[in-house]
Amino acid sequence: MEWRPKQPTRWNRQCTFILRQILPKLELGTASFVSSEEESEFERLLQFYWVTGFPIQMPYTDVQSVIDAVYQTGIHCSEFPQTEFALAVYIHPYPNNIL
Asked: pLDDT (tens digit, 9 = 90+) per residue, 47-58?
């Protein structure tokens, strides 16, 4: 499926890396587990980029349901030519192998 047929999809790997570090810690229920270094890196990104985004918290059933949830947000519809995307996914396991 081609989500952006008329525009290239550019990925901001630095932002993705930072989000991957932060997401598991946020799942613990408090931002105090996020190190000041990680917080500083993210704040540095905010100085240079206009960031639009949100978490999607949902039960995991399969990959396609996650893809559908992201598509439903319409975040890919940006018309700004310099748009860069970042994506990070964290699935927190619960007891009894519940995802």
From this structure: 888 888 888 888
